[in-house]
């Protein structure tokens, strides 16, 4: 028994609506796959992805460093960035994607992550000291 506010119980149930008719498919010839062109296209995509992957890691590193250098960056965000920056370094396996160590290695593999952490820590301390210094 169907109950509805606006349906008379004695009236017959409405017939279900017919599905909309689909237009007949156009006569298209079967697609011909050129395996060599498809392979070359995928190779270009992989190369582009690799280049953009490195660019994205460099962007994350530079953005975090700019935020640390900015005196208007809030304490919570500064703390999050420092936790990311001072995460334990791994040398026995590849670092996690987008970790500080991975970003630094893709930015410039010649940079020493320990020395870089110390350098950024000192620079951050100077910024914090200027932020919290009493106004003269």
What descriptive keywords fit this protein?
136 residues, mainly alpha, 54% helix
Description:
- Helix content is 54%, strand content 0%.
- The chain has 136 residues and is mainly alpha-helical.
- It has a domain at 46-132.
- The radius of gyration is 30 Å and the shape is elongated.
- The chain starts with 34 loop residues before the first helix and ends with a helix.
- The model has no long low-confidence stretch (mean pLDDT 83).
Give the topology.
Layout: H1 35-69, H2 75-85, H3 100-107, H4 113-132
Number of helices: 4
- Cα separation of the termini: 82 Å
Would you identify the regions where 5 or more consecutive residues have pLDDT less than 50? none
- Write down the secondary-structure element order: HHHH
Rounded to the nearest angstrom, the radius of gyration is 30 Å
DSSP E strands, number: 0
Task: Assign a percent range to the helix content.
Answer: 40-55%
- Helix-and-strand structural type: mainly alpha
What is the mean pLDDT?
83
Largest sheet: none
Percentage of residues in DSSP E strands: under 5%
Global geometry: elongated
Quickly describe the structure.
With 136 residues, the protein is an all-alpha fold. 54% of the residues lie in helices and 0% in strands. It starts with 34 loop residues before the first helix and ends with a helix.
């Amino acid at each position: 028994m169907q109950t509805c506010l606006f349906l008379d119980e004695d009236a017959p149930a409405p017939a279900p609506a017919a599905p909309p008719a689909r237009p007949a498919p156009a006569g298209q010839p079967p697609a011909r796959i050129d395996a060599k062109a498809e392979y070359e296209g995928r190779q270009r995509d992989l190369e582009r992805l690799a280049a953009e992957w490195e660019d994205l890691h460099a962007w994350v590193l530079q953005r975090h460093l700019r935020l640390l250098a900015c005196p208007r960056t809030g304490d919570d965000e500064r703390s999050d960035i420092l936790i990311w920056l001072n995460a334990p370094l791994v040398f026995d396996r590849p670092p996690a994607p987008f970790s500080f160590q991975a970003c630094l290695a893709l930015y410039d593999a010649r940079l020493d992550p320990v020395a870089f952490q110390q350098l950024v820590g000192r620079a951050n301390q100077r910024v914090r000291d200027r932020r919290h210094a009493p106004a003269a």
